[in-house]
Amino acid sequence: MDPSAQAIERVFREESGVVIAALVAQLHDLDLAEDAFQDAVAAALEHWPEAGVPRRPGAWLLTAARRKALDRLRRRATRLGKESALRVEAALDAAPQAGEDPAEIPDERLRLIFTCAHPTLARPAQVALTLRTLGGLSTAEIARAFLVDESAMARRLVRAKARLREQGVPYAVPPLEALGERRDAVLAVLYLIFNEGYAASSGYLLVRHELAREAIRLARVLAQLLPGDTEVRGLLALMLLVDARRAARVDASGAGVPLDEQDRALWDRAQIDEGRALVAGLGPLDESGAYALQARIAAQHVAGLHFADIDWRAVVALYDRLAARVPSPVVELNRAIAIALADGSAAGLARLEALAESLADYPPYYAARADLLRRAGRLSEARAAYHLALDRVATAPERALLERRMAALES
Question: What angle do CA 98, 214, 285 make, to 5 degrees?
């Protein structure tokens, strides 16, 4: 890939949410902000290959997007009414100067998250819209995260933006007394942004650090807004404990490294200590919500110096609680893996069989089944399952791991 195109893709991933949030703050029009940002990206594709990548590419995009927004407003002034267009143009002129670095506007993203999580939208639309506008994820990536068809996700996004526009939803963090009603949606948004950053759904990178870092940053801000909320602190703990392992998740060749093969010396001990301290303060187990339970599971994964130190029966017990609280085939998949590690591969495989239909297009299901079949010595079945996983996997590091395990079977 051309270096300029790579830089544009990186900037889009890292700074699209910052730039779009800054534009929405000034324009109060999400569609116009997104369109202007896309125009700016097109301009970058035209100019950067010759002029070189700017020293502050995010600031360049913000400057260009503001200009493109003005151009669009002027072109549609007659349709909107000249007075309306001039009002928005005046607001843009009064806003901070276009060259301002987007990194200096951290809170605008939190405002946009709460806007997208407005109660007027259904939960799936809230989460999808925020991932699209703030996470820099494509419609296809969001569809994969939701396990739905891409065209259906595109329609959901269009309807969500139209709904916000029709309802005149303000661009603002709601008052403290109203934060609770949007908390669950905001937590779901942050969780999916983090997941896409920690385990990318497509491309050449397994880990997209900028998305994971942004999710953690926003979770910290939310924890400051809601200091007594155990689910907010649970989600922050979960992110810290999982992200602490990122340096060990890909080997020198770019292949993914599973938990049982990771070099724990590469883990971020400071993040683990912070995450475990948060888990210790989560209160009674019986009162744990979904994120607090997942944080407790993640704390078990990082306990001790070796993989063999993990108490898998304790992990299974936590997954039992999680499955009762939030029934999900993906939770059941992870529970089956934990059962296999606690009670043997046969027990785990028996659990997996019940998930075959609900996870028919989910690559981790086939990878998990292949690994358990390999552990059980059923090598021909394991080989077939690895092939099914390879047919569906979307990232190069995951593919490399599966190919390595298939090669080990052959030898």
Answer: 150
The four Cα atoms 171, 172, 178, 183 give a dihedral, to 10 degrees, of 80
| Tokens matching residue 228 | 């007594």
Query: Two tokens at 207?
Result: 């880990």
Q: Where are the domains of the chain?
A: 1-98
Q: Residue 286: in which H helix or E strand, if any?
A: none
Structure tokens at 197: 């950053």
CA dist 282 and 60 (Å) reads: 43
The Cα-based distances of 289 to 177, 313, 322 in angstroms read 21, 20, 8
CB under 8 A, 24+ apart: contacts of 140-146: 140/202, 141/196, 141/201, 141/202, 144/201, 144/202, 144/394, 145/192, 145/195, 145/196, 145/201
CA distance 325 to 289: 8
**Which amino acid, 333?**
L
DSSP class of residue 99 equals T
* Whole-prediction pTM: 0.73
Report the number of secondary-structure helices (H) and strands (E) in the chain: 20, 0
Q: Which residues contact residue 131 at a Cβ distance below 8 angstroms, ignoring those fewer than 6 apart? A: 137, 141, 142, 145, 189, 192, 193, 196
**Which spans in 260-395 are helix H?**
269-280, 290-301, 312-325, 329-343, 345-353, 363-375, 379-392
Encoding tokens for residue 3?
Answer: 């270096």
**Tens of pLDDT along 13-63?**
777 888 888 888 888 888 888 899 989 989 988 888 888 888 888 888 898
Distance separating alpha carbons of residues 107 and 125, to the nearest angstrom: 22
- Considering only CA atoms, which of 356, 360, 292 is closest in space to residue 321? 292
User: How far is Cα 238 from Cα 313, in angstroms, rounded to an integer?
Assistant: 20
CB-based contact 206:9 (threshold 8 Å): no
Cα distances (Å, whole numbers) of residue 154 to 78, 145, 168, 235: 29, 13, 22, 28
The pLDDT tens digits for 335-372 are: 999 999 999 999 999 999 999 999 988 889 999 999 99
Rounded to whole angstroms, the Cα distance separating 37 from 60 reads 11
Listed residue (104, 119, 32) closest to 74, CA to CA: 32
